[in-house]
Structure formats: structure tokens, C-alpha cells
Amino acid sequence: MERISFTNHQLSNMKQRIGKWMKRFFFFALGLIIVLIIAGYGYETVSRKNVKKKFPPPGQLVDIGTHKLHFRISGSGNETIVFDAGSGEQGSYGFLMLEEELGKHATLISYDRAGINWSEPGPGERNGVRIADELYAALQKLAIKSPVVLVGHSQGGLHMIQFAKKYRSMVKGLVLMDAPLPSSFNDMPQELKNAMGGSSSQMKMATFMANFGVMRLTAPPPPSAPFKVNGLNTDSIEQVIAAMLPATLVNGVFPEVEQSVMKNDIVVNDGMLDSLPVRIISSRSFIRNVNEGPPGWNETLQQKFVEYWERNQSALVKLSSNSKRMILDNSGHAMHVTQPAFVIATILSVTVDHLPE
How confident is residue 220, by pLDDT bands cut at 50, 70 and 90? Predict the structure, then answer.
């Protein structure tokens, strides 16, 4: 077979042509990426505007001076219960399964914290002090009679502890549902932090995906499990909340996690709520078994988490001289969903002085 050889001049020409094609490909790819980013940002911006037009606030927007917060008020009665949901997109719809029964005994107030769902983004760091102050300002605008009973689930409990501490005279009782101790993130063993993720870099990546349309295009539709509460079709509510999710994560959830959870500003002292009735409903571990853990979760991590969570929850009892803790073995984190009757009875125990027979 005849061997093909190239002169130095031919090789030089080939290298130049390959270099030109590589440069063209690089600039083409770069241009394509820029076009996709611009298109994604435009798509997401237009989508958010359309969502606002298509799904107006179902409750009322309360102007607290710097921004407006969305409130839903239901039920009736002289007693008032104020709810604060955990981290995520549920917000003012996080306690629907409790409303029908509790609404027979009290006025119910649920709201979206700043940047979540229909509430406008708020200024400054989204820390526990600021969130409690904003809730207080809104309740004043609504002319809500005090004292009120505060109910906080998960991260919402952090804000309710801060509210009860700062505005003690306005509070009749406090119910915490799997709410972590304010220092919980700092107290968590490093191996659990590593396994559970949620780092700042991960949130930055998720923020990019949310702002440039990737999340809206790739997010799976919400699970379809329609049922009605007080005439509200929860399946349609899930659809609406899913449509608002990218903006909710960027404007509300992520800033809260970084500034209210990871850099918690609440100083907890034993007995700081004096004799305020405090009821603590704890899951044995909100990660109930290895299968519910994040990728890489194992029996060793599960046991460490159970021990950590017990230390965390038992410390909450020291908040008040009138604290009582109840442990639900198989409720999971969302006990208001899995065991609503127990949660309702606990809330009413500090809400209504004399329940009807």
C-alpha cells in the first residue's frame, strides 16, 4: 500500500483550517448559548407576568409600607389562629386540611411570606427578626384582635418563636409542628449536612435554572390528588402554585433558607417565653427510614439523624415553664397532613378555653 505523506506546508495549511473551524465552532456555540440564555430569560419573564394575570390573589394583599403580603382569612369567632408554613411553596395554603374544623372555633389567618406565591419580595435579609416584624405589621394593618395563637410548621416555627419572643403580649399560645430549634443548622453534625445537601452553590444553580426558564420547562407537573376543602379544589391550587414556583423559590424560599436557617439570628434562652402555653408536636424523625433519605443515605446516617432530632426537639421544651411535648412515631414531617385530628385537638387545647360538648 502506498504511503501518503504531507509536506510541512500542507500540514501547516491543515492546522490553520482546523484552527479556523474550531474558532468558528467556538463562537457559534458561544452565540447559541447566549441566544438560549436570552430566550430562556425572556420566556421566564413573560411566563411570570402571564401567571400573575391569569391567577390573581385569592385572598387580600396587605400593604406594610415596603411591600405587600398575601393573606387568607377564614373561619369565625373571637379567637384567632395565625399560621406560618414551612419552607417551600405551600404558604397560605399549607394548612387547608385543618381549616374546616378549626374554622368552627376561631378566625384563621394564613399568609404567604415575602416573595412566596402572591406576596411581593421584601427588602433586606430574609431573617427571622424581619419576617416576624413584617407579620406583626400586617396583623396591625388588619386590626386583628389579640391575643392570638401562633401555629408554625417546620421553618415557620422559627419565625413564630421569634414573634412570640418579641411580641409576647400579643400571643396567647404557641404550637410548633416539627419546628427545629433556631440553632438547629449550626448544631447539625457535619456528615448530616453533607449528606442532606442544600449548599449555597446548589441554590445558586437552582436560582439560575429558575430565572432562565429551565425549571419551568423541565419541572414535572404536580401530583394529581384532587379533593375539596371548604369548597376549594386542592388539585387546581397545586397547579397554580406550581406555575408560580420558579419565582417563589428565587424571591422567597432560597433567601429564607440562607438567611433565616443557615444564618439564624434568634437567640433562644431557657424560659424566655415565661409561662406561655407552648405545645410541641415532634415526629420521631421526619426522615422515617433509609428509603426516605437523600441519595447515599444509610443506616448510620439515619441513626445519627434520629439522635440529632431528639436533642433538637427536646430542647424546645425549655422555651416556657408551660411547655408540653408530644411525639408522633409514624407521622412523618407533615403531621398536619398525616394526622390532622391530633394536630387540631392540640391547637384547640390552647385556643379555646371551654370547648362545646
Answer: low
